[in-house]
Amino acid sequence: MRGGVELFRSLHRGRVPGDPLVLPGPWDAASARALAAAGFPALATPSAGVAASLGYEDGATPADEMFAAVARIVRAVDVPVSADVEGGYGLTPKELVERLLEAGAVGCNLEDSEDGVLKDPRRHAEWLAEVRAAAADRLFVNARVDVFAHGDGDPERAIERAALYVAAGADCVYPIMAPAAVLPLLRSGIQGPVNVLARLDGEGPSPTALGELGATRVTFGPGLQRWTARALAERAVTLKP
């Protein structure tokens, strides 16, 4: 959408504790329309949710199919859409930015691990800087920090990685799967917006509580897609004669 990145960036500014930007994750055009109709000001696609909708395991979606799915979601709504494009599919920073802009995305989520192994943080920061240079101000870059997902879970190590990524030009950092107990420490040590993953099973803090702990924005990963698939499976059983 025209001017979408400016709007998307502005949604991250001035957030007060307890009022994070909540970005649900659509996996196709129909789910995107439902979420936009519910009043969310922006959306953020989950790569695992999109993969499931296309019949792939998480991490196995071909780049062409992922970008085509993002483009369909963008076309379906009139709110900004950020896209989870995993590790960039081996594209050069210039190619990655071109594909994202062609799909109509206003931002992207980029991981700092590959096949469950953390990347060298300095080399990854250099790559992020190249993405930022290619994108200029046309994309909002959310840099995922996988220390809690694929590393040793050391908050200080997550903060060190985050600092490198922010210095490289990341607009936001995403310490995925960080325990709620360490969020205040992360918030105090990370400059700029922090994305936090929320659970939909009622076992974790609510988006409001995560905001009070330091989250600037809250996403759900593939949670909504998986919840919907379970609901469909349960309903389908009742349809059998």
What does this protein look like?
The protein has 241 residues and is α/β, with parallel strands linked by helices. Helix content is 47%, strand content 14%. Strand 3 (81-84), helix 5 and strand 4 (107-110) form a beta-alpha-beta unit. The longest helix is centred in the C-terminal third of the chain and has 17 residues, at 223-239.
Characterize this entry briefly.
The chain is 47% helix and 14% strand. With 241 residues, the chain is of the alpha/beta class.
Main attributes?
five-stranded parallel β-sheet, three-stranded parallel β-sheet, alpha/beta, 47% helix
N-end to C-end Cα span: 46 Å
Shape descriptor reads globular
What order do the SSEs take from the amino end to the carboxyl end, as H and E? HEHEHHEHEEEHEHHEHEHEH
Count of helix runs:
11
User: Strand order across the biggest sheet?
Assistant: 2-3-4-7-8
What fraction, in percent, of the residue positions are helical?
A: 40-55%
Average pLDDT: 97
Q: Which percent band covers the strand fraction?
A: 5-15%
What are the low-pLDDT stretches, counting only 5+ consecutive residues below 50? none
What value does the Rg take, in angstroms?
Answer: 17 Å
SS content category: alpha/beta
Count of β-strands = 10
The major beta sheet can be summarized as: 5 strands, parallel
How is the secondary structure organized here?
Elements: H1 4-11, E1 21-23, H2 29-37, E2 43-44, H3 47-54, H4 63-76, E3 81-84, H5 93-103, E4 107-110, E5 113-114, E6 117-118, H6 121-135, E7 140-145, H7 147-150, H8 155-167, E8 172-175, H9 183-189, E9 195-197, H10 207-213, E10 217-219, H11 223-239
Parallel strand pairs: 1-10, 2-3, 3-4, 4-7, 7-8, 9-10
Antiparallel strand pairs: 5-6
Helix pairs in contact: 2-4, 3-11, 4-5, 5-6, 6-8
